[in-house]
Write a structure and sequence with these properties.
15% strand, 2 domains, binds pyridoxal-5'-phosphate, Aspartate Aminotransferase, domain 1, 401 residues, Aspartate Aminotransferase, domain 2, seven-stranded mixed beta sheet
Length: 401
């Protein structure tokens, strides 16, 4: 059995662990959300978000200028709805790509406002770009897609879809909730009009706020009055220019977000992208060396996620029998996720978003291997740990959780 003394290790794909500094930021005395103190906090968070939204490339080059980063008092679903409702709230034609739970959510949100054509693939399968090219026409007002599909561990091809949207003059809204802050993201090169992310994922801040980057070109297309009152983006943009929100801000969460994004600026996005890629490879190679199968099998321009790894549960521990495996992982003081919706009891998922160390990734690989062994699956835990370790540069150990 594991040692009880080991710290709790949170490997769920959100919320993710946050640093002590981020936690401490939430414990400071309240101030008014209309005070200069709060405006300074908002501006710090906004500056850090500008960096993440526009400099998420392996060499740190700038991918967009002149757009606005704004922060919402609500999780990413609010950002997704705000984007859709402000762009097609008065009706229109939307093409939504669906190959997982969050792509489906985007389509469901769009259903409430506009006429939606879904381009679908099984959850975990890649959406053929040709099918998107057929669905998007000159009558398409908006295309929605999820970059990193958290429910299946797939990285969907935003560049290719953005090109199709641009060819037809359609607006392009991308959910970068589990990629931004951990992986490459190119606003202008990918023709993205609005990008959305969430505090509690790769930004490594607590849950409760989300953020959005509205490009200069997209601002004119927004119609705040077609959106729910709370999500009027014209209003949010006006207030963001003053470093405020239209309504009362979740002051402690904004403070925490400011500290978290400053950590990212300090680490730099190129280093962060490289670290996330190495850590995701470590999970994949580690589990493969133990004889476990990847759940997604990406094709074409679709790739494995660099932030979330999804693994098929062996036949003998699927369905109700999966509970013993998840309990055995939890007994090791490690928290991982199962599958969502119909993937429940069929897969497990681990995240490497945020500031995990190499040692924590290795502990995750071992915890899963030992739990498998405990429920009767024949795995070679040491081979898994060795394969994972081979992917992790030694200096990654320097990053404190
Ligand atoms: C890709 C993606 N989009 C959107 C969301 C929605 O986040 P929430 O349910 O916190 O609003 C999540 C949450 O896991 C996600 O992973």
């Amino acid at each position: 059995m594991p040692e009880d003394s080991e710290d709790f290790l949170l490997l769920n794909p959100g919320p993710v662990p946050v640093t002590d500094e981020v936690l401490r930021a939430m414990a400071e005395p309240m101030v008014s959300h209309r005070s200069t103190e709060f405006e300074a906090v908002y501006e710090r968070a906004q500056d850090g978000l500008d960096y993440v939204f526009t400099r998420s490339t392996p060499d740190g080059e700038t991918t967009s200028e002149g757009g606005t980063s704004l922060i919402l008092n609500g999780t990413a679903t609010m950002g997704m709805e705000a984007a859709v409702a402000n762009l097609v709230g008065g009706g229109g034609n939307v093409v939504s790509l669906v190959n997982g739970k969050f792509g489906r959510r985007f389509a469901r949100i769009a259903d409430r406002y506009a006429s939606v054509t879904r381009v679908e693939a099984d959850w975990g399968a890649s959406i053929p770009v040709e099918a998107v090219a057929e669905a998007v026409t000159d009558d398409t007002d908006l295309v929605t897609m999820v970059h990193n599909e958290t429910s299946t561990g797939l990285l969907n091809p935003v560049a290719e879809v953005g090109e199709i949207a641009a060819e037809h003059g359609a607006r392009f809204v991308v959910d970068g909730v589990t990629s931004l802050g951990g992986d490459e993201f190119r606003i202008d090169d990918w023709n993205v009009d609005v990008a959305i992310t969430d505090a509690q994922k790769a930004l490594a801040a607590p849950p409760g706020t989300s953020a959005m980057y509205v490009t200069e070109g997209a601002e004119d297309a927004l119609d705040g009055e077609s959106a729910p009152f709370y999500e009027d983006l014209d209003w949010h943009l006006r207030k963001a220019a003053q470093h405020q929100t239209p309504f009362t801000s979740a002051v402690p969460l904004f403070r925490a977000l400011a500290v978290a994004v400053e950590d990212i600026v300090e680490e730099t996005m190129p280093a962060r992208i490289e670290r996330h890629r190495a850590q995701a490879r470590a999970f994949r190679e580690g589990f493969a060396a133990m004889g476990l199968d990847s759940f997604p099998a990406p094709e074409g321009p679709t790739a494995f996620s660099n932030t979330v790894t999804a693994i098929s549960l062996p036949e003998s521990i699927r369905g109700d029998d999966s509970a013993a495996f998840f309990d055995a992982v939890a007994d090791r003081n490690v928290s991982i996720s199962g599958g969502q919706a119909h993937l429940g009891g069929r897969i497990f998922r681990v995240s490497n978003m945020g500031r995990l160390s190499a040692a924590q990734i290795l502990r995750g690989v071992r915890a899963v291997g030992e739990a498998m062994d405990e429920v009767g699956i024949d795995v070679d835990v040491d081979a898994g740990a060795d394969a994972a370790e081979a992917e992790l540069p030694a200096e990654a150990d320097a990053v404190e959780a």
